[in-house]
Amino acid sequence: xxxxxxxxxxxxxxxxxxxxxxxxxxxxxxxxxxxxxxxxxxxxxxxxxxxxxxxxxxxxxxxxxxxxxxxxxxxxxxxxxxxxxxxxxxxxxxxxxxxxxxxxxxxxxxxxxxxxxxxxxxxxxxxxxxxxxxxxxxxxxxxxxxxxxxxxxxxxxxxxxxxxxxxxxxxxxxxxxxxxxxxxxxxxxxxxxxxxxxxxxxxxxxxxxxxxxxxxxxxxxxxxxxxxxxxxxxxxxxxxxxxxxxxxxxxxxxxxxxxxxxxxxxxxxxxxxxxxxxxxxxxxxxxxxxxxxxxxxxxxxxxxxxxxxxxxxxxxxxxxxxxxxxxxxxxxxxxxxxxxxxxxxxxxxxxxxxxxxxxxxxxxxxxxxxxxxxxxxxxxxxxxxxxxxxxxxxxxxxxxxxxxxxxxxxxxxxxxxxxxxxxxxxxxxxxxxxxxxxxxxxxxxxxxxxxxxxxxxxxxxxxxxxxxxxxxxxxxxxxxxxxxxxxxxxxxxxxxxxxxxxxxxxxxxxxxxxx
Length: 515
Prior knowledge:
globular; mainly beta; Maltoporin, Chain A; two-stranded antiparallel ribbon; disordered C terminus; 21 strands; 17-stranded mixed beta sheet
């Protein structure tokens, strides 16, 4: 009997039975021995066929992982099929479909807190006999009271991984299809569609006597996700003469995203060890949410080249997003780039085998999450038979504008000594403006945050890549590379009316700010 088996050691008069003291000695491997050797098995089989007019492929993939944390695993099965076919000399089709089932009986918790067994090891002394915790129920109290060496801050790690499980079963389908028709030798039309959808069912069990859930908990989550992309693209390529070539494209896209989430929770178990929603000693908790988003787009791009040396690229795109107010839901993307392969135009020194100079500028717009500009009520738990709703904690803004990121980049790429030594340098600046920020406000307003546009963040950076072919021979080559990068971000402007923003932990004392 262990010292921690308190109930079994208690005599009728309230005194405890005698125990043999645990020696106060170092156990240097007490944490290491908790972990197991992780093993991953992966198998794949495929069948493919091909001919002059097309090809097809069918494959099956299986993955099985046993984690380094006891009683954790991951299993995945995937079935994929793809084909491409030249239906006609001017008409081609392609399709791909992938079904993936991913599941686990228990995934380990991460982060800081009782749910993560590694958190407990921060407070576990080197003298602790972790091996004795494997029998994680107190004698005579199986399923009712767990055994531990510290009941205040920790939960027995073996109870956590064997009883407090996080299981899931996720079925996902990925697919795309495209058709291309060559109207002429220079003009082609493409139609494409792609889908990503999954259904993820999760279960969370917490045994009675767990530190944060002394009466046990059971919860079911259901996440459904669907994303559909469809677009049409018209492309034209030609040349002005032998030196000048160009291609232009124009198209339209529709993006639809639908997310549904719901959960039900038995916050306290009526009977320990029975994990069903019906076994709840208190009214069930639950919630459901739906998020719908649509973006309609038009876009165009063009490329102009001169003697395979000078290249100019330009792109334009405009989006209309359902997540922004109707009078400001349109935003554009613009980019232009210039690349000059100097070594293709001029005779370079013998040591220089390639030299390319490049410069680009871009401006990118962005929307926000659904339902951020119209105030809504939130369903609350009923009070008896009375139905309740409450305000959201975030004050929405009907005047939100799209975010914007402006970017500049310049660089060069040079090869020396027949390509044996290569150098790539780049400097850039990114400036974010009109960011959509949920800024803190006084809670006396009835809200804790307010969605606003504002602020400006400027990031400047430099990147360098040096590569060299150290050894080059007919039978052996050795290449090595070193890269370096640095950047500095600065908040150059705050939203109107904001004097300071705390992204971490802040305290205010008599006008002084402590960060």
